[in-house]
Amino acid sequence: MKRHLLSATDLDRESATLVLDTAEEMARLGERSIKKLPTLRGRTVVNLFYEDSTRTRTSFELAAKRLSADVINFSAKGSSVSKGESLKDTALTLEAMGADAVVCRHSGSGAPHRLAQWVKGSVVNAGDGTHEHPTQALLDAFTMRRRLGRIEGLRVTIVGDILHSRVARSNVLLLDILGAHPTVVAPPTLLPVGIEAWPTEVSYDIDAVLPKSDVVMMLRVQNERMTASYFPNVREYSRRYGLDARRVAALPDDAIVMHPGPMNRGVEIAAEVADSARSTIVEQVANGVSVRMAVLYLLLGGSEPAIGSPAAGSTEGERP
Amino acid sequence: MTDWLLRQVRPLGGDVVDIRIVGGVIAEIGPSLPEGDCSVYEGGSSLVALPGLVDLHTHLREPGREDAETVETGTRAAALGGYTAVHAMANTTPVADVAGVVEQVWRLGRDAGWCDVAPVGAVTVGLGGEHLAELGAMAESIARVRVFSDDGKCVSDPVLMRRALEYVKAFDGVIAQHAQDPRLTEGAQMNEGVVSARLGLAGWPAVAEEAIIARDCLLAAHVGSRLHVCHLSTAGSVEIIRAAKAKGWDVTAEVTPHHLVLTEDLAATYDPTYKVNPPLRTAADVEALRDALADGTIDVVATDHAPHPVEDKETDWTAAAFGMTGLETALGIVAETMVATGRLDWAGVADRMSIAAARIGRLADHGRPIAVGEPANLTLIDPDAAWTVDRAQLASRSTNTPYAGRSLPARVVATFLRGRPTVLDGKPA
Ligand SMILES: [Zn+2]
């Protein structure tokens, strides 16, 4: 592993597979009655969230606590960071606190990259602007592997606001690294100029792609995209790009339906689809904790297996 | 006033001569002149003498942002960069949209004494893009404003742009347009293309520049006015200017040093040192800009020197300010990109960095031939003295240079403003 996880491209096939394998061990731990490992005792993980995201913050917090790390939640609201303190000053403050890892969510693309230039600890990108969200891509890959037994060769269709989606960017990159075949589907207005350089197929027609999809991942579409004329209205968007029961019927039998949440039921995904047996939406949340444990463990804990030493899971025999 | 004898210099890179300056005027040019009562500056037979450089596009930030730059610090940086005149952009606080402000800036420049400061007047009140500023009053003031620009903002309203182009004809003014369609660039962070798609930074498409330039060329032709286009950055813009000039329209254009050398890939660092407006473009754009500067389609190199305090750059890309400093490195970048590549000789550099800029800005005493009887505004360059840019050594109050650590092939060793040295041996005199 590199020192930071800023982009899916910080991983190669080997290290990404190691994260997924480690997450598998972590998931098994989660099935035990005592869910804690002593691995990161004495280490400090800072959650630096400039954007509200209870889901992601809670997921990282739980992951760090299950590894016995000390967790500091440094939310931008009500702290010095909202009073104009620069990103650099904040970085130096975290440095002074002895942060071993900083989990950063920011509305500006590239903010975690900047942070990584100023802190000695590891920086984990927990979503930056319209750039990337690599742990989301890892948890999505983990979910696919658990459901379908493999990632290599899977045909993964990502539908929605690709232009503004950090989830889409990280997923396309990671799926390519892992040997899957991504296709992005969107109205042309919601695809970036320059997408031809991405390692993905591009389509405007969801119905043409669904029969050839092992995975279909629906992205949230925001109302403000409508007011900015990316599409005429929600009704038309839903009709042309929404996943309803009729479209699901066109999927291969064992294809799965994913959504990073939060969902707009009835817009990009019909309620009955979200709640169907194909849907992995609830698992994705649980898998998020396992994957983030794996990432923190591998960035901070070292190279030995996470579980398997006799003392694992007890309060003794922690690693140095 | 001290008189000077410049020993063994090469005007425009030509034959070695001595130049005698008496009373601020070039008094004698010839081989091995007698010393007389003059102070002697030894050239060492390799120095190139150019007419003092003229910048059409400088942000001196005073009044209002003295934490970034002042007229004093900015003009000292300009002198060290070889400039004897700079045009100070109007986007100060308060905006230079009335005679009082341009006169204040002009006086600050005169009092500082490092180089002449020609204030640029705002086109519209408060750069608001709605009502014409008092262009005539600024033209008639002691600052004698001839260049008007809302730089930083585009005069996007076509009717207002037409009126401005027409109005300034009465006093031989020019509108210098910052060509950026505001609607096409809302929230824009960098050039729109493959790199912006990957980095997730909102795109600033080339068409947002080109569409405004095309419109303005057509407007200028229609009303028979003079148009100057600031900081061309795309190959498409070059094509439009080339076509306008071929039709004989009175259109001029500038390019910045950074658009001649840096490309959009630098945004991948997310280091806002490379965040600038218009944004860094592609390598193909850089090539087109160099070609256009060489063949005269682009008339001048203008720095768009845009100082910012550290805190406006030491943050994340999207929150950071646009702009780079450039006064002290412009000549070196032009030497690297145009002279070392054989695209311009030193006479060409004199034209693009002094003569054409003075002509566009209507500065009578600058950009003159190096000839007897002309004002002694001169810059001496060592074309073989490579130097490494060091942030701490630059004179600008701000340190947002994109060239820190870069080696440049030529350096300014002396600058004379009306016969008085402002820089000697590369240091403030
Ligand atoms: Zn500008």
Count of helix runs of chain A: 12
Q: pLDDT under 50 segments of chain B (min length 5)?
A: none
Structural class of chain A: alpha/beta
- What's the CATH class label of the largest domain in chain B? Alpha Beta
Global geometry of chain A: globular
Walk across the major sheet of chain B and give the strand order.
3-2-1-4-15-18-19-20
**Biggest sheet of chain A: strands side by side, in what order?**
7-6-5-8-9
The overall pLDDT average of chain A reads 90
Structural class of chain B: alpha/beta
Strand content of chain A: 5-15%
Shape of chain B: globular
Helix content of chain B: 25-40%
CATH architecture grouping of the largest domain in chain B = Alpha-Beta Barrel
- Radius of gyration of chain A, in angstroms, nearest whole number: 20 Å
Output the helix-strand order of chain B: EEEEEHEHEHEHEEHEHEHEHEHHEEEEEE
Q: Report the major sheet of chain A.
A: 5 strands, parallel
